[in-house]
What does this fold into?
Amino acid sequence: MTEILRIENIHKNFGDLEVLKGIDLSVAEGETVVILGASGSGKSTLLRCTNFLEIPSSGKVFLRGDLIGEEDPTGSMGYQESDLTHVRQRMGMVFQQFNLFPHMTAIDNVMEALVTVLKQSRSDARRTAMDQLDSVGLADKADEYPARLSGGQMQRVAIARALAMSPDIMLFDEVTSALDPELVGEVLKTMRTLAEGGLTMLVVTHELGFAYHVADRVVFLHEGRIYEEGSPKNILTDPKKERTRDFVRGHLQFSIPSHGES
Amino acid sequence: MEYQWDFLSIVDNWNLLAIGLLGTFKIFIVTCVIGLSLGLLVGIGRYSRAWSIRLPAAVFVEFFRNTPVLIQIIWFYFALPILVPFEINAFTASVMGIALNTAAFSADIYRGGIQSIDRGQWDGGRAIGMSYLQTMRRVIIPQAIKRMLPPLTNRGIEVFKMSTLASIVAYAETIHQAKLISESYFNPIESFSVVALLFFVVLFPIVQVTYLLERRFGKSD
It folds into this structure.
């Protein structure tokens, strides 16, 4: 299968703090990869390094086989801001805190990049945006401002906004962590539909149920390294290593089928 | 002897005051345009990643914010012509003093307004592929303006009142004209009271309009 994303030996330091200590990861077309790990394990930083909201301290990112940035003779990477802007147009990202633009209506949020970045006409952009809102079940909320939407609705608008750019891959950064418990389901359902529709997704989450039922592969991050990796069933019901076992046991309140089931 | 109130001579000389009010408006408008646009440049400069831009911007702000405008006007009027080969008239000197002070204050208002916007808004803009400038223009500034409007209004009112400082170099603004009247008719209390009243009559409606604007900008909340 075609490889969409490959990350090679990514390191990230914030001052003296080394958050990522050499991550290798690849995501194939149509694949959903879930990243698990305790807080502070570097999950969010890994996503932010993938679309260069943070610049990795070292290491390489390939999108559809193309190396992002330029490698100088010493082997370190240089990045042009305009190249990174272009790369971000091909990677959608959804955030824990939604980051919708509060001064724009739902549909204007979804249209924004189409008009400002892709220079589409407002009527074309509006049509695409309306389709995207419809696909996340929010066509009737198109003209509402974010402040008048529930957290779950805001997050679905944010998903539509990222999808409108037809990205090669979608990055989800703990998108249900800021939601009231009763609103988590609608967002997970939307994501599940997208995964089943063949969207390529890299998902950081604490929802083990989602990982179990939707992921093709699960990666467990611990202290800035990939600690264990495998099928959802192996990682969630039969983890081989100690930290993974502790983590899964700590999340047992979520609905994971036990060993006997399934 | 009882004090004889004399407002009549002011009414008789209303044309002198009208000239003064016109002068005040000239200073106000020119100063606002120059000061607020220069302030935006300096404010963005203070936000720059390059210290070679950030440092001069900071020095500019601190210098003009912490020295009296009155002295600056005097300095531009009397001292600067010694250093440069051309005359500087009262209007130019006054505008320079007040505009630079306004730029220094508004620079910090712009900077504070931009910095007050949540980091996540930058993430949101960058993540959908907008450039730094696009994010600034489409996402950050429209939200920051809403927060900057009240302090900028205050600045505007200050500028209008600061224009009276131009009287120190004999520019024909309202205070200067009131002084002319009071020196002819010996009625300084009445003359200056009328100036205060005029200022209130001009400024009060302007402030009401900005309240309206604030409500309009706030409709998405």
